[in-house]
Amino acid sequence: MPTAFPRPVAIVGAARIPFARAGGVYAELSNLDLLATTLSGLVERCGLAGVRLDEVGAGAVSSHSRDWNLAREALLSTALDAHTPAYTLQQACGTSLQAAFQLAAKIACGAIDCGIAAGCDSASDLPIVFRQRFARRLLQLNRARSLKARLAALKGFSLRELLPQPPSAAEPRTGLSMGQHCERMARQWQIPRAEQDAYALGSQRKAAAAYAAGHYDDLLPCAGVLRDNLLRADSDLDSLARLKPAFAADGTLTAGNSTALSDGAAAVLLASEDWAQAHDLPVLAYLRNFRCAAVDFVADEGLLMAPTLAVAELLSRNRLALQDFTLYEIHEAFAAQVLCTLRAWESADYCRERLGLPAPLGTIDSGRLNPWGSSLALGHPFAATGARVLGAAARQLAQRGGRALVSICTAGGMGLAAILDAA
Protein backbone atom coordinates (compact mmCIF):
# COMPACT_ATOMS: atom_id res chain seq x y z
CA MET A 1 0.00 0.00 0.00
CA PRO A 2 1.46 3.41 -0.91
CA THR A 3 2.29 5.62 2.05
CA ALA A 4 3.59 9.16 2.34
CA PHE A 5 5.70 8.28 5.39
CA PRO A 6 9.48 8.01 4.87
CA ARG A 7 9.71 5.74 7.93
CA PRO A 8 7.05 3.74 9.81
CA VAL A 9 5.17 5.28 12.72
CA ALA A 10 4.35 2.76 15.43
CA ILE A 11 1.69 2.90 18.12
CA VAL A 12 3.38 1.27 21.10
CA GLY A 13 1.14 2.19 24.00
CA ALA A 14 -2.42 3.23 24.80
CA ALA A 15 -4.19 4.03 28.03
CA ARG A 16 -7.29 5.73 29.31
CA ILE A 17 -9.23 6.17 32.49
CA PRO A 18 -12.87 5.05 32.64
CA PHE A 19 -15.25 7.58 31.13
CA ALA A 20 -17.93 8.85 33.50
CA ARG A 21 -21.21 10.69 33.26
CA ALA A 22 -20.85 14.42 33.87
CA GLY A 23 -21.73 15.62 37.34
CA GLY A 24 -20.91 12.25 38.89
CA VAL A 25 -17.82 10.51 40.20
CA TYR A 26 -15.35 12.91 38.57
CA ALA A 27 -17.28 16.07 39.48
CA GLU A 28 -14.49 17.37 41.72
CA LEU A 29 -11.70 16.62 39.22
CA SER A 30 -10.28 19.13 36.75
CA ASN A 31 -8.96 18.66 33.24
CA LEU A 32 -5.48 18.64 34.74
CA ASP A 33 -6.42 15.90 37.21
CA LEU A 34 -7.89 13.69 34.49
CA LEU A 35 -5.02 14.21 32.05
CA ALA A 36 -2.26 13.80 34.63
CA THR A 37 -3.78 10.55 35.88
CA THR A 38 -3.93 9.17 32.36
CA LEU A 39 -0.43 10.25 31.37
CA SER A 40 0.96 8.84 34.62
CA GLY A 41 -0.75 5.53 33.96
CA LEU A 42 0.64 5.32 30.44
CA VAL A 43 4.14 6.22 31.65
CA GLU A 44 4.00 3.49 34.30
CA ARG A 45 2.53 0.92 31.90
CA CYS A 46 5.26 1.52 29.33
CA GLY A 47 8.10 1.75 31.85
CA LEU A 48 8.98 5.35 30.99
CA ALA A 49 9.76 6.73 34.44
CA GLY A 50 12.69 9.11 34.11
CA VAL A 51 12.62 8.90 30.31
CA ARG A 52 12.86 12.06 28.24
CA LEU A 53 10.34 11.94 25.40
CA ASP A 54 10.62 14.16 22.37
CA GLU A 55 7.15 15.70 22.70
CA VAL A 56 3.77 15.45 24.38
CA GLY A 57 0.80 17.02 22.61
CA ALA A 58 -2.53 17.20 24.43
CA GLY A 59 -5.58 19.37 24.85
CA ALA A 60 -9.14 19.85 26.01
CA VAL A 61 -12.16 21.34 24.27
CA SER A 62 -13.82 22.89 27.33
CA SER A 63 -10.97 24.54 29.18
CA HIS A 64 -10.54 27.20 31.83
CA SER A 65 -8.08 30.07 31.62
CA ARG A 66 -5.98 28.14 34.12
CA ASP A 67 -5.53 25.43 31.47
CA TRP A 68 -3.42 27.67 29.24
CA ASN A 69 -0.43 25.31 29.58
CA LEU A 70 -2.42 22.15 30.27
CA ALA A 71 -0.19 19.61 28.52
CA ARG A 72 3.01 20.81 30.15
CA GLU A 73 1.45 21.00 33.62
CA ALA A 74 0.06 17.48 33.26
CA LEU A 75 3.44 16.21 32.10
CA LEU A 76 5.14 17.72 35.15
CA SER A 77 2.75 15.69 37.30
CA THR A 78 4.11 12.42 35.85
CA ALA A 79 7.34 10.47 36.31
CA LEU A 80 8.62 11.52 32.89
CA ASP A 81 11.87 13.45 32.70
CA ALA A 82 10.95 17.11 33.25
CA HIS A 83 13.02 18.01 30.19
CA THR A 84 10.23 16.57 28.00
CA PRO A 85 8.53 19.44 26.13
CA ALA A 86 4.76 19.59 25.80
CA TYR A 87 2.24 21.73 23.97
CA THR A 88 -1.49 22.26 24.21
CA LEU A 89 -3.67 22.12 21.11
CA GLN A 90 -7.35 21.90 20.21
CA GLN A 91 -9.38 20.74 17.23
CA ALA A 92 -12.75 20.16 18.84
CA CYS A 93 -13.58 16.45 19.17
CA GLY A 94 -10.59 15.58 16.98
CA THR A 95 -8.07 17.13 19.39
CA SER A 96 -6.14 14.05 20.50
CA LEU A 97 -6.32 12.47 17.05
CA GLN A 98 -4.86 15.66 15.57
CA ALA A 99 -2.15 15.51 18.24
CA ALA A 100 -1.34 11.98 17.07
CA PHE A 101 -1.22 13.17 13.45
CA GLN A 102 1.24 15.94 14.31
CA LEU A 103 3.50 13.59 16.22
CA ALA A 104 3.28 10.97 13.47
CA ALA A 105 4.33 13.46 10.81
CA LYS A 106 7.36 14.46 12.87
CA ILE A 107 8.32 10.85 13.57
CA ALA A 108 7.87 9.93 9.92
CA CYS A 109 10.26 12.62 8.69
CA GLY A 110 12.82 12.01 11.42
CA ALA A 111 12.30 15.25 13.35
CA ILE A 112 11.47 13.29 16.51
CA ASP A 113 11.51 9.64 17.59
CA CYS A 114 8.64 9.44 20.06
CA GLY A 115 5.77 11.29 21.66
CA ILE A 116 2.46 11.02 23.49
CA ALA A 117 -0.82 12.30 22.06
CA ALA A 118 -3.60 12.81 24.57
CA GLY A 119 -6.86 14.56 25.28
CA CYS A 120 -9.20 15.15 28.19
CA ASP A 121 -12.43 16.89 28.98
CA SER A 122 -14.59 17.49 32.01
CA ALA A 123 -18.20 18.36 31.30
CA SER A 124 -18.55 18.51 35.10
CA ASP A 125 -16.19 21.49 35.27
CA LEU A 126 -17.29 23.76 32.46
CA PRO A 127 -15.76 27.25 32.27
CA ILE A 128 -18.64 29.44 33.48
CA VAL A 129 -17.52 33.07 33.40
CA PHE A 130 -18.74 36.59 34.05
CA ARG A 131 -20.46 38.47 31.27
CA GLN A 132 -18.16 40.47 29.02
CA ARG A 133 -19.32 43.85 30.31
CA PHE A 134 -18.42 42.95 33.90
CA ALA A 135 -15.12 41.39 32.80
CA ARG A 136 -14.19 44.66 31.08
CA ARG A 137 -15.18 46.54 34.22
CA LEU A 138 -12.84 44.35 36.31
CA LEU A 139 -9.99 44.98 33.90
CA GLN A 140 -10.66 48.72 34.07
CA LEU A 141 -10.65 48.54 37.88
CA ASN A 142 -7.35 46.69 37.81
CA ARG A 143 -5.82 49.47 35.71
CA ALA A 144 -7.22 52.26 37.88
CA ARG A 145 -4.62 54.15 39.90
CA SER A 146 -6.85 56.61 41.74
CA LEU A 147 -10.16 56.69 43.59
CA LYS A 148 -11.65 58.76 40.78
CA ALA A 149 -10.60 56.17 38.21
CA ARG A 150 -12.05 53.34 40.33
CA LEU A 151 -15.38 55.14 40.69
CA ALA A 152 -15.42 55.76 36.94
CA ALA A 153 -14.91 52.04 36.34
CA LEU A 154 -17.93 51.25 38.55
CA LYS A 155 -20.20 53.84 36.96
CA GLY A 156 -23.37 52.30 35.58
CA PHE A 157 -22.82 48.96 37.32
CA SER A 158 -25.85 46.68 37.36
CA LEU A 159 -26.40 43.46 39.30
CA ARG A 160 -27.36 41.86 35.98
CA GLU A 161 -23.69 41.98 35.07
CA LEU A 162 -23.06 39.33 37.74
CA LEU A 163 -25.22 36.75 36.00
CA PRO A 164 -22.94 33.87 34.94
CA GLN A 165 -22.37 33.13 31.29
CA PRO A 166 -22.11 29.38 30.63
CA PRO A 167 -20.34 28.11 27.51
CA SER A 168 -22.55 27.89 24.46
CA ALA A 169 -23.28 24.57 22.77
CA ALA A 170 -24.31 26.30 19.55
CA GLU A 171 -22.27 26.67 16.39
CA PRO A 172 -21.43 30.41 16.16
CA ARG A 173 -22.14 30.52 12.42
CA THR A 174 -25.63 29.02 12.63
CA GLY A 175 -26.79 29.35 16.22
CA LEU A 176 -27.73 25.67 16.17
CA SER A 177 -26.40 22.98 18.48
CA MET A 178 -24.71 19.87 17.14
CA GLY A 179 -27.84 17.90 17.97
CA GLN A 180 -30.03 20.31 16.01
CA HIS A 181 -27.67 20.04 13.06
CA CYS A 182 -27.80 16.26 13.28
CA GLU A 183 -31.60 16.40 13.29
CA ARG A 184 -31.35 18.16 9.94
CA MET A 185 -29.02 15.45 8.67
CA ALA A 186 -31.36 12.70 9.85
CA ARG A 187 -34.25 14.32 7.97
CA GLN A 188 -32.17 14.82 4.84
CA TRP A 189 -31.01 11.20 4.80
CA GLN A 190 -34.36 9.87 6.02
CA ILE A 191 -32.95 8.04 9.03
CA PRO A 192 -35.96 6.94 11.12
CA ARG A 193 -36.03 6.90 14.92
CA ALA A 194 -36.27 3.10 15.04
CA GLU A 195 -33.08 2.69 13.02
CA GLN A 196 -31.23 5.11 15.29
CA ASP A 197 -32.40 3.30 18.42
CA ALA A 198 -31.42 -0.07 16.97
CA TYR A 199 -27.95 1.22 16.16
CA ALA A 200 -27.54 2.69 19.66
CA LEU A 201 -28.63 -0.59 21.24
CA GLY A 202 -26.09 -2.42 19.09
CA SER A 203 -23.32 -0.17 20.38
CA GLN A 204 -24.36 -0.86 23.97
CA ARG A 205 -24.40 -4.61 23.40
CA LYS A 206 -21.02 -4.62 21.65
CA ALA A 207 -19.47 -2.70 24.54
CA ALA A 208 -21.06 -5.02 27.10
CA ALA A 209 -19.72 -8.05 25.22
CA ALA A 210 -16.27 -6.46 25.05
CA TYR A 211 -16.32 -5.93 28.80
CA ALA A 212 -17.37 -9.55 29.34
CA ALA A 213 -14.49 -10.69 27.12
CA GLY A 214 -11.97 -8.69 29.16
CA HIS A 215 -11.11 -6.14 26.48
CA TYR A 216 -11.48 -3.27 28.95
CA ASP A 217 -9.65 -4.87 31.85
CA ASP A 218 -6.72 -2.50 31.30
CA LEU A 219 -8.56 0.74 32.08
CA LEU A 220 -6.58 2.92 34.48
CA PRO A 221 -8.28 3.36 37.87
CA CYS A 222 -9.26 6.94 38.63
CA ALA A 223 -10.94 8.21 41.79
CA GLY A 224 -11.91 4.63 42.61
CA VAL A 225 -13.64 4.15 39.25
CA LEU A 226 -12.75 0.98 37.33
CA ARG A 227 -15.35 0.89 34.54
CA ASP A 228 -17.04 3.28 32.14
CA ASN A 229 -20.22 4.19 33.99
CA LEU A 230 -22.30 5.30 31.02
CA LEU A 231 -22.70 1.76 29.68
CA ARG A 232 -26.33 0.63 29.78
CA ALA A 233 -26.02 -3.13 29.36
CA ASP A 234 -29.68 -3.64 30.29
CA SER A 235 -31.00 -1.27 27.63
CA ASP A 236 -33.61 -2.51 25.17
CA LEU A 237 -35.58 -1.14 22.24
CA ASP A 238 -38.72 -0.59 24.30
CA SER A 239 -36.95 1.62 26.84
CA LEU A 240 -35.18 3.53 24.07
CA ALA A 241 -38.47 4.08 22.25
CA ARG A 242 -40.01 5.69 25.35
CA LEU A 243 -37.43 8.47 25.48
CA LYS A 244 -38.51 11.94 24.36
CA PRO A 245 -36.75 13.82 21.53
CA ALA A 246 -33.87 15.90 22.86
CA PHE A 247 -33.35 18.58 20.22
CA ALA A 248 -36.73 19.13 18.51
CA ALA A 249 -40.28 18.40 19.56
CA ASP A 250 -40.81 16.31 16.43
CA GLY A 251 -37.22 15.08 16.28
CA THR A 252 -35.72 11.61 16.31
CA LEU A 253 -32.57 12.19 18.38
CA THR A 254 -32.89 11.26 22.05
CA ALA A 255 -30.71 10.81 25.10
CA GLY A 256 -30.59 7.12 24.20
CA ASN A 257 -29.23 7.48 20.66
CA SER A 258 -26.97 10.48 21.37
CA THR A 259 -23.76 10.63 23.38
CA ALA A 260 -24.06 11.83 26.96
CA LEU A 261 -21.96 14.62 28.44
CA SER A 262 -19.03 12.88 30.06
CA ASP A 263 -15.64 13.25 31.73
CA GLY A 264 -12.45 11.38 30.92
CA ALA A 265 -9.03 11.28 29.30
CA ALA A 266 -7.06 9.04 26.94
CA ALA A 267 -3.53 8.86 25.55
CA VAL A 268 -1.44 6.97 23.00
CA LEU A 269 2.33 6.58 22.68
CA LEU A 270 3.80 6.80 19.17
CA ALA A 271 7.38 6.05 18.18
CA SER A 272 9.80 4.99 15.51
CA GLU A 273 10.58 1.28 15.29
CA ASP A 274 14.12 1.84 16.55
CA TRP A 275 12.95 3.78 19.59
CA ALA A 276 10.31 1.15 20.41
CA GLN A 277 12.89 -1.63 20.16
CA ALA A 278 15.36 0.27 22.32
CA HIS A 279 12.71 0.61 25.04
CA ASP A 280 11.43 -3.00 24.74
CA LEU A 281 7.97 -1.88 23.68
CA PRO A 282 6.10 -4.15 21.26
CA VAL A 283 4.38 -2.48 18.33
CA LEU A 284 0.59 -2.65 18.59
CA ALA A 285 -0.03 -1.24 15.12
CA TYR A 286 1.32 1.21 12.57
CA LEU A 287 -0.29 4.56 11.78
CA ARG A 288 0.05 4.44 8.00
CA ASN A 289 -1.62 7.63 6.85
CA PHE A 290 -4.20 10.22 7.81
CA ARG A 291 -6.36 12.97 6.41
CA CYS A 292 -8.35 15.97 7.66
CA ALA A 293 -11.26 17.54 5.78
CA ALA A 294 -14.01 20.10 6.25
CA VAL A 295 -17.46 20.81 4.84
CA ASP A 296 -19.39 24.04 4.36
CA PHE A 297 -22.03 23.26 6.95
CA VAL A 298 -23.32 26.84 6.83
CA ALA A 299 -24.33 26.06 3.25
CA ASP A 300 -26.13 22.97 4.61
CA GLU A 301 -23.59 20.31 3.64
CA GLY A 302 -24.18 18.60 6.99
CA LEU A 303 -22.20 19.60 10.08
CA LEU A 304 -21.01 16.07 10.85
CA MET A 305 -20.46 14.81 7.30
CA ALA A 306 -16.80 15.80 6.89
CA PRO A 307 -15.57 12.24 7.64
CA THR A 308 -17.21 11.12 4.40
CA LEU A 309 -14.81 13.44 2.57
CA ALA A 310 -11.76 12.70 4.74
CA VAL A 311 -12.21 8.96 4.27
CA ALA A 312 -12.80 9.24 0.52
CA GLU A 313 -9.65 11.30 0.05
CA LEU A 314 -7.64 8.99 2.30
CA LEU A 315 -8.75 5.90 0.38
CA SER A 316 -7.92 7.53 -2.94
CA ARG A 317 -4.46 8.62 -1.82
CA ASN A 318 -3.70 5.10 -0.62
CA ARG A 319 -5.39 3.20 -3.47
CA LEU A 320 -7.74 1.36 -1.15
CA ALA A 321 -11.42 0.50 -1.24
CA LEU A 322 -13.78 1.06 1.67
CA GLN A 323 -14.08 -2.69 2.05
CA ASP A 324 -10.31 -3.27 2.47
CA PHE A 325 -10.42 -3.13 6.27
CA THR A 326 -10.66 -5.64 9.06
CA LEU A 327 -12.39 -3.17 11.34
CA TYR A 328 -13.79 0.36 11.38
CA GLU A 329 -13.59 2.63 14.42
CA ILE A 330 -16.08 5.40 13.67
CA HIS A 331 -16.82 7.85 16.48
CA GLU A 332 -20.49 7.88 17.42
CA ALA A 333 -21.53 11.42 18.27
CA PHE A 334 -25.07 10.33 17.43
CA ALA A 335 -26.47 7.14 15.99
CA ALA A 336 -27.96 9.28 13.21
CA GLN A 337 -24.55 10.75 12.35
CA VAL A 338 -23.02 7.29 11.83
CA LEU A 339 -26.02 6.13 9.80
CA CYS A 340 -25.92 9.26 7.63
CA THR A 341 -22.23 8.64 6.96
CA LEU A 342 -22.82 5.01 5.98
CA ARG A 343 -25.73 5.98 3.76
CA ALA A 344 -23.68 8.69 2.06
CA TRP A 345 -20.94 6.23 1.17
CA GLU A 346 -23.61 4.01 -0.40
CA SER A 347 -25.14 6.87 -2.41
CA ALA A 348 -24.05 7.19 -6.03
CA ASP A 349 -25.35 10.78 -6.16
CA TYR A 350 -23.55 11.88 -2.99
CA CYS A 351 -20.29 10.22 -3.93
CA ARG A 352 -20.41 11.78 -7.39
CA GLU A 353 -21.60 15.28 -6.47
CA ARG A 354 -19.94 15.81 -3.08
CA LEU A 355 -16.95 13.47 -3.15
CA GLY A 356 -16.12 13.64 -6.85
CA LEU A 357 -16.14 9.86 -7.25
CA PRO A 358 -17.29 7.90 -10.30
CA ALA A 359 -19.11 5.33 -8.15
CA PRO A 360 -20.30 4.93 -4.55
CA LEU A 361 -17.79 3.78 -1.97
CA GLY A 362 -20.26 1.07 -1.02
CA THR A 363 -21.22 -0.71 2.18
CA ILE A 364 -19.20 -2.04 5.07
CA ASP A 365 -19.73 -5.16 7.17
CA SER A 366 -21.65 -4.03 10.27
CA GLY A 367 -19.91 -6.73 12.29
CA ARG A 368 -16.61 -4.97 11.68
CA LEU A 369 -17.93 -1.56 12.76
CA ASN A 370 -16.90 -0.56 16.29
CA PRO A 371 -16.57 -4.19 17.47
CA TRP A 372 -15.94 -3.15 21.09
CA GLY A 373 -18.68 -0.52 21.13
CA SER A 374 -18.03 3.18 20.78
CA SER A 375 -19.00 6.60 22.08
CA LEU A 376 -22.73 5.96 22.46
CA ALA A 377 -21.98 3.24 24.99
CA LEU A 378 -18.64 4.31 26.44
CA GLY A 379 -19.00 8.09 26.58
CA HIS A 380 -17.47 11.01 24.73
CA PRO A 381 -15.19 13.36 26.70
CA PHE A 382 -14.65 15.55 23.65
CA ALA A 383 -10.87 15.84 23.30
CA ALA A 384 -10.25 12.33 24.65
CA THR A 385 -12.18 10.43 22.00
CA GLY A 386 -9.52 10.57 19.29
CA ALA A 387 -6.94 8.86 21.49
CA ARG A 388 -9.57 6.37 22.65
CA VAL A 389 -10.51 5.24 19.14
CA LEU A 390 -6.88 5.19 18.01
CA GLY A 391 -5.89 3.09 21.00
CA ALA A 392 -8.88 0.77 20.59
CA ALA A 393 -8.09 0.19 16.93
CA ALA A 394 -4.41 -0.48 17.66
CA ARG A 395 -5.20 -2.96 20.43
CA GLN A 396 -7.69 -4.84 18.28
CA LEU A 397 -5.19 -5.08 15.43
CA ALA A 398 -2.59 -6.41 17.86
CA GLN A 399 -5.03 -9.21 18.75
CA ARG A 400 -6.47 -10.08 15.36
CA GLY A 401 -4.22 -8.56 12.69
CA GLY A 402 -5.43 -6.76 9.60
CA ARG A 403 -6.10 -3.11 8.86
CA ALA A 404 -8.30 -0.49 10.53
CA LEU A 405 -10.03 2.68 9.38
CA VAL A 406 -10.58 5.35 12.03
CA SER A 407 -12.72 8.46 11.69
CA ILE A 408 -14.06 11.27 13.86
CA CYS A 409 -16.49 14.10 13.14
CA THR A 410 -16.05 17.40 14.96
CA ALA A 411 -17.72 20.70 15.63
CA GLY A 412 -17.13 23.31 12.96
CA GLY A 413 -17.84 20.83 10.16
CA MET A 414 -14.50 19.02 10.27
CA GLY A 415 -13.53 15.37 10.01
CA LEU A 416 -10.39 13.34 10.64
CA ALA A 417 -9.56 9.87 9.34
CA ALA A 418 -6.64 7.48 9.62
CA ILE A 419 -5.44 4.10 8.41
CA LEU A 420 -3.77 1.65 10.79
CA ASP A 421 -2.03 -1.62 9.92
CA ALA A 422 -1.24 -4.48 12.26
CA ALA A 423 2.40 -5.00 13.15
TrEMBL record:
Catalytic residues (UniProt): C93 (acyl-thioester intermediate), H380 (proton acceptor), C409 (proton acceptor)
Domain Thiolase C-terminal residues, every copy: 282-421
Alphabetically ordered keywords of this record: Acyltransferase, Transferase
Span of the signal peptide: none
Molecular function terms from GO: acetyl-CoA C-acyltransferase activity
A single GO cellular-component term on record: cytosol
Domain Thiolase N-terminal: residue ranges: 9-274
Source organism superkingdom: Bacteria
Homology family: Belongs to the thiolase-like superfamily. Thiolase family.
Name assigned to this protein: 3-ketoacyl-CoA thiolase
Lineage, highest ranks first: Bacteria, Pseudomonadati, Pseudomonadota, Gammaproteobacteria, Candidatus Competibacteraceae
